[in-house]
Amino acid sequence: MGAVKYRTANRSGIVIRRRVLPSGDIIVTLLTPQGKLKAIARGGVRGPLASRLNLFHHVGVQTYQTPQSDLATVRQAVLEGALPTLAEPERHPFAHLMAEFADALFQEGEFSEQAFDLFAAALRGVARQSDPEWVALVMSYKLLGLAGIVPQTARCARCGAPDPEYPDPVGGQMLCAACASLPVYPPQSLDFLRGVVRRTVRANMDAPVPLSERPALWRALERFVTVQVGGVHSWRQLVPSELEPAGAAG
Ligand SMILES: [Zn+2]
């Protein structure tokens, strides 16, 4: 055979998806400042790359790609950072949710340094803050804002009447009293939904909505993302259930 042309690349990013094939190869998706990158680590499960390419690890990878294959191959991986507390049961579901969310929201090759920075900050927050659920809610809305997919809060999603205050069970936006079928949002939830995208992360973090109001916010986010983005598979398991009494873990 003649000389095969390899394209090699060095990238640094966070593992947001990891799938082990029956062959033992691992397919990973990284979120990097240059966009999303999908690559295969051949024989990965048995190789030294396996433990480095774990979910939520920040890794530097060297990949190569032949003209015949559409998937880059990981040649080397170096661990650049890990957040071990993300393995804790009260944090892991939120980290997983953020990773699924980023995967659905951002396209391969789409350049977004800001998205990477925001996602990395979200993971750090989920790893370190005392209220990882609140971090995940705030950062999910901030990521939506960055992607330019923002729920409408100024007008009823059904009839267009101004200043809606009720949940929209179909589209995850907001409805006026005349169109509503669910109870009105409490004041703090209303304030959050109207301001979260515009406010800074810090301002949002400083004004957490009470635990009892969060299931409705998660439901709205889940509906909105399902309708507008799609492709987020694990919401059903990950979004906290309202049936779980607040404080039951204590
Ligand atoms: Zn209406």
Task: Describe the protein's architecture and organization.
α1 runs antiparallel to α2 (113-128), α1 (92-105) runs parallel beside α3 (132-146) and α2 runs antiparallel to α3 (132-146). The protein contains 7 helices and 7 strands, in the order βββββαααββαααα. A hairpin with a 2-residue loop joins β2 and β3. By secondary structure, it is an alpha+beta fold. Mean pLDDT is 89; it is low at 242-250. It has a 5-stranded mixed beta barrel with strand order 1-2-3-5-4. A two-stranded antiparallel ribbon has the order 6-7. The chain has helices at 92-105, 113-128, 132-146, 187-195, 201-205, 214-228, 235-238; strands at 7-20, 26-32, 35-41, 58-65, 72-81, 166-167, 174-175. The protein folds into 2 domains: 8-82, OB fold (Dihydrolipoamide Acetyltransferase, E2P), CATH 2.40.50.140; 85-238, Recombination protein O, C-terminal domain (de novo design (two linked rop proteins)), CATH 1.20.1440.120. Zinc ion binds at residues 156, 158-159, 161, 175-176, 178-179. Zinc ion binds next to loops.
The CATH topology of the largest domain corresponds to: de novo design (two linked rop proteins)
Q: What is the tally of helical segments?
A: 7
Largest sheet: 5 strands, mixed, barrel
In quaternary terms, these chains amount to single chain
- Order of strands, main sheet, comes to 1-2-3-5-4
What ligands can be seen in this structure? zinc ion
Number of domain modules: 2
